[in-house]
């Protein structure tokens, strides 16, 4: 079960909650950088999902109420595939062509590098295990 599945459906939509908290879901996990390549703890499918989640987060202006439903949809599948990404994008009204362009292009790579740096900063001096 993922962290997204543990969130009550309406938690972030509680009136005023996002006004009093700084919520930033980082789609990176225990990824490791090897040169310019990211190796994900659970393999290439996890990396694909992280990239899709990061791109959608950016496409929605980093608005949790807009990107979290996509993340929940993606995390609810048994395996993250391009087909599941497409299904979740359609379900959430996300432009699939723009999303896949981000996932497979330089914009996605730049965005996931930002997620990696933020994740490392959050765990500086702490074990991520």
Q: Helical region count? A: 7
Low-confidence stretches: none
Span from first to last CA?
A: 17 Å
Mean pLDDT equals 83
How do the strands line up in the largest sheet? Answer: 1-2
By secondary-structure content and strand pairing, the structural class works out as: mainly alpha
Number of strands: 2
Beta fraction of the residues? Answer: under 5%
Can you put this structure into words, describing what you see?
By secondary structure, this protein is mainly α. 57% of the residues lie in helices and 5% in strands. The protein is built from seven helices and two strands. Strands 1-2 form a two-stranded antiparallel ribbon. Strand 1 and strand 2 form a beta hairpin. Helix 3 runs antiparallel to helix 4 and helix 6 packs across helix 7. It is globular and about 45 Å long. It starts with a helix and ends in a 7-residue tail after the last helix.
